[in-house]
Every structure is written in C-alpha cells, then in structure tokens.
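#struct-pred

JT: dropping the chains for the assembly here, can someone run the whole complex?
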Amino acid sequence: MRPDIDLRAFLDTRGATILLTLSLLAVVAFAALGGLVQPALMPDGTADLEMTVFVLTLPLSLIIPALTVWITAGEWSDGSIQHTLLQRPGRLAVLTSKVLAASAVFAVLVAVSIALAAASTWIGGELIGEGAILSSIDGVMTTQLASLAATFLFSLAMGMVLQSTVLGLVAAIGVPFVVGTASSLAMAFGSETLADVIRAVDLSSASVALADGSAGAFELLPLLLLVALPAVLGAQRWRHREIG
Amino acid sequence: MNSTTDPAPTLAVRALSKRYGTRPAVDGLSFECRPGTVTGFLGPNGAGKSTTLRILTGLAEADEGEALIGSRRYRELDRPARTIGVMLDARALHGGRTGIETLRLTARTLGMPAARAEDVLATVGLEHAASKRVGGYSYGMRQRLGIGVALMGDPSVLVLDEPANGLDPEGIRWMRRLLRSFADAGGTVLLSSHQLREVEATVDRLVVISAGRLVREGPLEELTAVTGTRVTALDQAALRRALDAHGIAFELRAGGELAVSLAPEDMGRLALREQLVLTSLGAGAGTGLEEVFFALTGHEGPVADEPAPAL
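RK: done, full complex below.
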C-alpha cells in the first residue's frame, strides 16, 4: 500500500489544485460567515461553535464528496488507472491505498474546518459580540462530525462501486438530497410505512443516532445498504474490471 | 536496460483464450518472445493483439491459458515495472500533470531515484516540454512520454502497443534505434504495430495473428524469404500442366507470372524436358512484409494476386 503515492498523484494535478483552492476559500468564507455574523443575528449576541460548524457543513457536504470521489474514482474516469495498475498490479492494495489517502484528506479537511470554525466563533463572540460558546464542542463531535463522516463514507462507497467521477458525484450528492426530501414528504404525509423505508436509507440520521448512542439495530441498516454493500461490490468490481 | 547480470526473461504466451460473450477475442494463442530480439506482433484490427497484451500485463484476465514473464504472471512479479516496461495507450497519461511530474511520480512509485526522471526525459527528447502539461502535448509527444514511463524502471523487457503512432519520421527513427539497442543489449521487446514498413525495419521475429489465432511465427527473414523461381512461358497453360504433372507447387503472381517452388536451374531443366519455351526465368524476389501480412491474415492486399491451388 502506498497512500503517499496516491496523495501525491492527486495533489500534483492542476484540477486538484483548483478544487483545493476553491474548497479552502469556501471553508474560510463559510467559517467567517458562521462565526463573525452570528452575534448580529442571535438575540443574546453570542456566537455558538455548533452553529458555526453547522453553517460549515453546507460547503463541506459538497467538498467532501468531490474530493473523496475524485481520489477513489478519478483515475478510472481519466484512464490513468492503466498506468497505476501497470506499476502497482495489486489491485486491492491500490484500492486500500486510495481509501487511506481519501481518509487522510477528509481528516485534515474536517480538522481545519473545525479549527477555523472555533477561531471565527471566538473572534465573533468575544471581539464582536457578547461572548463565544465553545462548550458545544461535544455536540459538534457527535451530531456534526457524525453527519460529515456519513457523507464521507457514502462518497467513498459510491466512488468505489461506480468507478466514475461523474456518476460517483451525482450519487454521492444526489442520493442524500433525495433521501432528505423524501423524509420531509413522509413527515408531511404522515405515512409510517414510507417513513420506515426512508429511515432504512437515511444514513445521516442513522450516523447521528449511532454517534450519540441512541441508535438501535435498525440504524445499522443504512450503514449496511449505503456503505458496506456498495463497498464490497466496489472492491469486487475493482479486482476484476478490465482496463483499456 | 538494466545492467544486472540476470538475462532478460522470455515472454511466453501459452494456449491463451479469452471470450467476450460468444465471440472469441483470443483463441488458443501460443508464442514466445526471446531475449535479444525485437518481436513484431501483427494482426488486423480485432485480431486480438490488444487483448493479448492486456492479459500479458495483468490488465485483463484470461479464460484459459497463461501469459508469463519468465516463469511468472505479471501480477505475481515483485515491482513489475522494474522488469517489464509497458506502453499500451499513451492517451492514458494524466493530462493535468506536467511531463516531468509524470516521470517523477513514476520514479517514486517504482523506487527509482528522482534524478532518473530528468535522464529519461532527455532520453525521450522532451526536455523542452518538461514543464508543459501533458494535456497540451501532441500525440507524438505523449507517445514519447509513454515510452519514457515504460523505461523509467530500467526494465529488461519492453512491451509496446503501436509505439510509432503519431511519431514524426525523426521520432520513428529514434524509436527504431532505441528498440534495436535495447534488444542488442540483451533485452526482450514485443511491439504491436499496424505500420508494416516500420515493423519490417525494426523487428527480428514476427508473430502474426488473425481472429485470435496464431497464423505464423518465426524470424522476419524466414517469413519474407526468397522462395523458388519466377517464371513465364510462351504457353502458360502447358507450363502449368507440366508443373502439375510433376507435382510441383506454384502460385500465380501479378502479370501472369508463376512463382514455382524450384530452383531456377531445376526449372530450366524441367522446361527443356517438357519442350517449353520460357520467356522469363529468375530467382523469386523476396516477398515484402505487407504482402506476407495480407496473405497470412486473408485480408486484401494492394496487389490482388489469385493463388493457384498448390499441388
């Protein structure tokens, strides 16, 4: 396994440079928006870290799928997987290596985002507003982080199984949107059957329930259907798909 | 080629078969490429060349048979690119990296010193385009860079698919010298190409396939060898009858000339015995690779010769 190679292969392309620059700008902008503007909008004039991170999840829900799918599936789309597998013919090792590389990028991205959120919350709350609430970090670590981890895992699974940047992105961004919309409709219609069906594929809610300890066995179903199953199928496809 | 004392491995394709649905892409194909030789791998479009090369390099799986580098399959080799340099499709190089970044990344992957990237870039004649994105390269430049990637691990075997495509005459000459010197240093080279004249000028041995099957394998000279005698007679029908009567094989060539499987002096003796007046007699000219290719693969050649039944 050579995740360092996969990281470098991802980072030294022009497309990645553009994507990372735009991502960083978006994260900084949304962190500033969340932390600095919050005191003006809140009745008590404070800035809450959990709210800032919540604002940051908006760009992150696009950035995480883009980076993750690109790292795992990008070489299949541009054809350069041929050279990778000629030089490193152990296909599962290459896949594992790419998963590790994507995980490292996700970890750094989330760490930078939370650090920026904390900094902007402190500046907004202490220097501009009536105080900063940083004690909500526990909520961030359960609710927000679990939701971001769910986005990452689903994107990873889609990249693995679809092995196409376009299809992977459409699925990784589109499916959670469709599930969220369907969930709202199910609540509006009051249909329990529909609500149960949607719960079975609502990875974000399941991950939050798993993180805060309120999950039952049912919450494992979305993890199984949307992450484990496509990942296993993707690994099988990765092993046998012909190149060229 | 690497300077180790180990001889280059032989490439061995044994009873290889691969089907896509009901269509056989490769059908019981066997051949070998030996160290110190450049082997041309020829066949019409859809003959199974690319499928064979992809199986050989671990990019596809065979249904039956095996393709070995030495005694091991590609995927079983430890750091395969240090043993066998492969260039199948130069378009597969990532367009978002520069030429030098492509080679540096390859060097790092293969555990070669970073400085080798500059050396290889100079070898393939792309120093002037080192900092240019591969996406902006011409097809010929990509071919050169692809060959550079194949050479990066200092391998003892080269497998190249259509390496001359997109190269200008100077580039073709460069590639010919490169492959010749590689083989002369003891390396094993397998190259597939549609450019028959280029193949003829470069290779020592030929493997010709059609419809996934081996049609002919052997040294270039043997396949394009001078064979028999070219002869015409005042009475061509009488000449044919005489040859038939003596069980001598012949083929009808352009202009009514017969290619006869006899030495010229024996043909002269036969004509004397049979009271035939010959209007021309001489050793058969060497058959061009193009003619051999079209004859072996059953495809229409530039000169449509109708072969007479060999007896």
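JT: nice. The longest helix of chain B spans residues 169-184. The longest strand of chain B covers residues 23-33.
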